[in-house]
Write a structure and sequence with these properties.
Elements (H helix, E strand, L loop, with lengths): L12 H10 L8 E4 L10 H12 L4 E4 L4 E3 L1 H6 L2 H35 L13 E3 L5 E3 L1 H15 L4 H11 L17 H9 L7 E9 L2 E10 L9 H12 L5 E2 L2 E2 L9 E2 L7 E6 L6 E6 H4 L9 E2 H9 L2 H9 L3 H32 L3 H30 L2 H16 L3 H11 E7 L4 E6 L4 E5 L11
Parallel strand pairs: 1-2, 10-14
Antiparallel strand pairs: 2-3, 4-5, 6-7, 8-9, 11-12, 12-13, 14-15, 15-16
Helix pairs in contact: 5-8, 6-7, 11-14, 12-13, 14-15
Length: 464
């Protein structure tokens, strides 16, 4: 998590700590140990001071191990100079990060300037373009034909979802941006990106990323004509653009609004893929359903429509079961997981060192290289899971669970679907919508399962 962008204080482990302090679950007189103040924040001075003050004023003693300093409410009142020192340290951290950001921005700005003279300044090109050995750009004929087909099908009245479904039924190879792993099947969202991408006209669009109030803001920086090989003519692109511009998108205050209580949680019982919201009938009056995203894209699985209203009604009515399961999440299992994962990481580290020693003595071989890659992949998984478990162990105190559960109760009883969905995603890992049994299998972050009925087994769901 970036301390410069402020992400660590918004969604990272520091956010969990600050929330625990705010809720009073970390008592006054506790100590927070950090390597340096720039591990707390590298934001601008006002943002840094706010975070620093929120910790100290809550009765927490902040200890920086690098310079052996202690900051507490009492010590700062007695020695105000320490407050000035803390501000200078945090200002230095912000300045260092800002300098790095400026240098990186300047480097890319220089590349953009040179882009008009030298075509290649990044190998990340659209999926229908390739970089030749002499570092020129050319269209891949068979993929350019697919792009042209997408535009032709859309102008003939075929929607982006139907286009993706047709390509999947044909077994058409997927491809993304060069240098990145393609998806497993065609998605309507990728078709939409191609329809909106000026690269089909040969135009390179560069963007800059700036930080405002600790948040990323992406802006268009430059448009360079005739950079890529053109695959679509201006008239065709303009006609598609006009149609796309008339499409309505449900938004609130400039952002997309979730109309699905279980968005990001609902899982298909057959393929374990995500289930998404669709409408039967007109977009405004149609009845909402959940269907397997893979089936909807025509990439396999069974297309079974489940009434979203019934699912949401069951979730809202299952608070008591959810509460019992969430309160049953003890810290003992988490502590055991942490201990197990720490042991696994030590074993993996020893194995990696042994393989590295063997390579040093015997020289590189395909067998040893493959073994080292496998161990590194497993180590990455263990480290990631260990980090998540440590944060969870830190935040999942009994009192804090009570607070989150009370927030969930209020959200489920309210009308703000977005807020309720955020809390459900904070507390639950997945909700499998098993239309074969009429059950919702709700799994908490600590793997406690709650089964909730959303319909009688003999009830018939609409299948198409």
């Amino acid at each position: 998590m970036s301390a410069f962008k402020g992400q660590n204080a918004e969604t990272g482990a520091l956010r969990a700590f600050l929330r625990a302090v705010e809720d009073g679950h970390i008592p006054r007189g506790s100590y927070l140990l950090v390597e340096s103040l720039d591990r707390i924040t590298r934001g601008h001075v006002l943002q840094a001071q706010t975070i620093f003050n929120s910790i100290v004023m809550a009765g927490i003693t902040l200890v920086t191990l690098g310079d052996q300093r202690e900051y507490s409410e009492e010590s700062l009142i007695a020695n105000p100079t320490d407050l000035l020192i803390s501000l200078l340290v945090m200002m230095r951290g912000n300045d260092e990060s800002a300098t790095k950001a400026r240098r990186l921005k300047a480097a890319w700005a220089n590349k953009r300037v040179l882009a008009g003279e030298k075509k290649l300044f990044t190998r990340l090109v659209p999926g229908w373009i390739r970089v030749t050995p002499d570092e020129t750009l050319e269209a891949i004929p068979e993929r350019a034909e697919v792009v042209q087909r997408i535009f032709s099908m859309f102008l003939s009245g075929i929607g982006k979802g139907a286009i993706a479904k047709a390509f999947n039924s044909e077994g058409l190879e997927t491809w993304g941006m060069a240098g990145r792993k393609p998806g497993q099947h065609w998605h309507a969202s990728y078709v939409a990106k191609i329809l909106d991408n000026p690269a089909v006209l040969g135009i390179l669009t560069t963007r800059t990323v700036e930080f405002e109030d600790g948040r990323e803001v992406i802006r268009e920086a430059q448009r360079i004509d005739d950079y890529y090989p053109r695959v679509i003519d201006d008239e065709t692109f303009a006609r598609v653009r006009a149609i796309r511009d008339t499409a309505t998108v449900v938004r609130q205050k400039g952002r997309s609004v979730s109309r699905n209580l279980v968005a990001g949680l609902s899982v298909c019982p057959i393929c374990s893929g995500a289930m998404i919201r669709v409408n039967k009938g007109t977009a405004k009056r149609g009845k909402p359903y959940l269907v397997c995203s893979k089936a909807k894209a025509g990439a396999g699985c069974s297309y079974k429509a489940v009434g979203l209203e019934a699912v949401e009604f069951a979730v809202r009515g299952a608070f008591s079961e959810f509460s019992e399961a969430l309160l049953a999440e003890g810290s003992q299992s988490l502590a055991a997981d942490v201990q197990r994962l720490e042991s696994d990481s030590l074993v993996l580290n020893d194995e990696m060192e042994n393989v590295a020693d063997a390579i040093a003595k015997q020289g590189t071989s395909s067998v040893l290289s493959r073994k080292l890659r496998e161990l590194q992949t497993e180590m990455d998984r263990v480290v990631s899971e260990l980090r998540d478990r440590r944060v969870q162990l830190f935040t999942e105190t009994h009192a804090m669970r009570h607070a989150r559960i009370e927030e969930l109760r209020a959200a489920l009883e309210g009308t703000d679907i977005q807020a309720a969905n955020v809390l459900l995603r904070e507390l639950f890992k997945a909700i499998t919508v098993d239309y074969r049994t009429g059950q919702l299998q709700c799994v908490t972050k600590a793997d406690v399962r709650v089964d909730v009925s959303y319909r009688w087994v003999h009830d018939e769901e609409e299948a198409t």
